[in-house]
Amino acid sequence: MKPYWSGVFPAITTQFHKDGSIDLDGTAAHAEVLIASGIKGLIFLGSLGENQPMSGEEKRRVMEAMVKVVNGRVAVLSGVAETSTPEAVRYTRDMEKLGADGVMLMPAMLYKGDTDETLAHFRTVAKSTGLPIMIYNNPISYANDITPELFAKLAEQKNFVALKESSGDVRRITDLHNTVGDRYAIFTGVDNLALEASILGIDGWVAGTGIAFPAENQYFWELTRQGKWEEARTIYRWFTPLLHLDVSTKFVQYIKLAVQETGLGKEWVRAPRLILKGEERKRVLKIIHDGIAKRPKLPKRGKA
Asked: In terms of residue numbers, what domain contains 224?
């Protein structure tokens, strides 16, 4: 039953209409483009998917629809970002009923737990479901740091199968290999460390900015799998100003604007977020438009 997840698992945005209501058709259309690029999984309702500003009913409606749209072509995961352990258990069980292939589990939101509390949260949710789980470690945004030593303590729970490492410290990749070996599939979750993490040895990438540039994102990933580091480095130097958009407090607005400018969706966000304006908008648009103008010419598929 244990899957071995690998490859690109984009964190897809949830598309909204201008009035803030959910645009299921827009979300599905973007998912189709990403699937066509060669990804191996889709993560809906992560941080980039604006999980927290959505109601539980809305999140379940999105996942029910997206499981049907994807229809088994790639793995479908939902972010789990509830504020309490019981709610995380309830939501994860509902994902299992709806036919999701797994979940990406975050610490309990809004609470900085100590080590025992953090471990208890993850273990309780895992024991409540048969779904495979990707643990999301992002101490910069969510305060709770799951260190390699804590991952070793969680290793006995068999349905923890992957981890998304977003501490921002690329040295963690080697520390994880030295501490837990190949117990988990290791994914990087920091776009502008994707090449560095690949060199150190990862199994997958939860891509953010790449949802606006899916063909280039996938091509770059495939170069890293083949060890074509010179070619990968060339693509990465073009891509990096765009990948920097993923590491900002307004990463949702930045990446949604990139998605809009590449014709794959709209920039509308759910309040309290607001769309970009003024000089900030001009600055981000320049980065996006420069990236589009300098887009590398890719070889035909299968010839990377």
From this structure: 7-293
